[in-house]
Amino acid sequence: MRDAAHQSLLKARRQAIHASIAECLERDFPALASMQPELLAYHHAAARRPEIAAARWAKAAQLAFNRSAMQEALAHARRGLEELACVADGPARARPEATLHATLALALKASKGVGHPDTERAFERAHALMRGSAGRPLAFPVPFGLWHAHWFQGHLGQARAEAGELLVLARSSGSREQLLAAENAMGSCLIHAGENVAGLAHFDRVLALHDRERDAPLAFRYMVDFGVSHGFSAAMAHFALGWPDAALQEARDVIAHARTRLPANLCAALNFAAHVPIFRDEPATALGWAEECLALADTHGFAFHAASARINRGWTRARLGRPGEGMAEIRAGIEGWHRSGAGLWSPRHLLLLAEACIRDGRGSEAAALAGQALAIIRRTGQRHFESPVLTARGDALLAAGLAASDAAAEAEGCYREAAEVVHARHARHARHARSWELRAVLPLARLRHAQGDIAEARALLAPVCGAFTEGFDTGDLKEAKALLQRPT
Hints:
Elements: H1 2-8, H2 11-28, H3 30-35, H4 37-46, H5 50-66, H6 70-84, H7 91-111, H8 117-130, H9 141-152, H10 156-173, H11 176-192, H12 196-209, H13 218-222, H14 226-241, H15 244-258, H16 263-273, H17 275-280, H18 283-300, H19 303-319, H20 323-339, H21 346-359, H22 363-380, H23 386-400, H24 404-425, H25 434-450, H26 454-466, H27 475-485
């Protein structure tokens, strides 16, 4: 009956009634209008006021985004853009259109993934519309979003150049918020390039600038909590540099902090901090974090976080004695990761899959996977995992055992190269990647020990182990200690 009555009215009369309802709601029911801007958007759209309707849809999209209701945020943003389709180009259209594209991009970033082509296109469109609008709230988060997309796609050269541009803009503006975002961007690029000391210097500045309570709203503007990003990035770098206990504490601290933030921030902490227990060889901890992340990601529709959690969980299952099941889950996770447009972390994911293959006796397959990871590293500059990937390739060649003497010689070459890349990259720094060096020399010492050259095995291992001041309960250090104490 309502619909029939509505349709019986002349179009002009219907539009006038909708306009009156919208005006009444805004005038007499401000709390309702503030809480349900989509209701106002509907009435303004029906009154054929597309610019006003689009602005209300933009507000509704932002409120939904703030509740982590990403599908609702996407729907509202798209409704707003549909309203603007009939508005001529000009200031009345550009401002709400830029805000809608920015909100759409942020919601896509959380749901489809940072590196998804749809996310990148939305940020590109918002960036084009916001040029020359330095004072607007999303004017810096939009180019930061473009950097984030290219970084997550694994294009480190492009991302590093964009991070440099962000630093220039931030320093010229003097904005603490912008400096926080730009230092985060450059630090992230450097750590994934394997330049851990330089990357940590930028994250030290992030820590100095960051205020947990004051900066909590920035997670809505950037879809990054800079405290969370600092925590798991520092943990990643400190583990590589040879402080596995400090790294584990940072990983635990960042997860505790992320529990007070957005669900997407908690997923990021659980996923990327899991790097530490995985390489400490603590599968039970990694499994708990992966399962919590997966449940949260499935609830909120975070596809790329779910994919990453499956990779981590797959590694734990392989490590706990179910390699076939673990390999299947890692492969499914890698497929989902690539579907989201992500290319970052690909060498690490292939490394975990190679390790699972070795556990299942598939040495040749593992060697091929390590070769794929090395090709990606050398093409994209993602060198953080170059040394452990070379080590895994050596392990895979030994596991394949095609011709025992040839396999041993080629594996030894991989182990030596794995140790050399650590020293070559960090020649200017006293702090090189000791954890990766230990991982490289441990199997080489094991090989020498098996060949009866006990003295060389100890000569290889003792100085590296002696450089550690903590982490003695980690898998690699326990194995190294046992090898050093093995009777001749």
